[in-house]
From TrEMBL:
Residues 1-112 form the VanZ-like domain. It comes from Cohnella candidum. The keyword Protease does not apply. The chain crosses the membrane at residues 39-57, 64-84, 96-116. InterPro entries: VanZ-like. Keywords: Membrane, Transmembrane, Transmembrane helix. This is VanZ family protein. The lineage of its organism: Bacteria, Bacillati, Bacillota, Bacilli, Bacillales. NCBIfam families: vanZ_1. It comes from the Bacteria. Pfam families: VanZ.
Length: 128
């Protein structure tokens, strides 16, 4: 989790001009990408999964989902505050919303996994 937070911090510390130099590379990977806004979903989806990993089995409860969302949204808020001090970057409430949506999507995935596991559709261990 801390490593992924550092990655997000380093990326958000890039000035607007520096980020624009990376856009052509990502456009080859993701055709139709006009800017980095959709990357908020992906970054905070991954962050939520790393928080869940850290929580272990406690992640698979409503309290765990709330912790995951709280950590991600709070970190997203500090990230937006940090961008206020980066040249050519500004904090944006929409970015924080996208961060929260990415984290919530990961929580939904964890919930679906939990439901499938309860129904016995996901093997817990394999015997060879």
């Amino acid at each position: 989790m801390v490593v992924w937070m550092a990655v997000i911090f380093l990326l958000s510390a890039q000035s607007g001009g520096e980020l624009d130099t990376w856009l052509p590379f990502f456009r080859r990977l993701l055709p139709g990408l006009e800017d980095f806004n959709p990357m908020h979903y992906a970054a905070y989806f991954v962050l939520a999964l790393t928080v869940a990993f850290g929580l272990g089995s406690r992640a698979f409860s409503w309290k765990g989902y709330l912790w995951i969302l709280a950590v991600c949204v709070l970190y997203g808020a500090t990230d937006e505050w940090h961008q206020a001090y980066v040249p050519n970057r500004t904090p944006d409430w929409n970015d924080l919303l996208h961060d929260g949506i990415g984290a919530a999507a990961a929580c939904v995935l964890l919930l679906i996994y939990r439901l499938f596991r309860k129904q016995g559709r996901v093997p817990t261990s394999r015997k060879y």
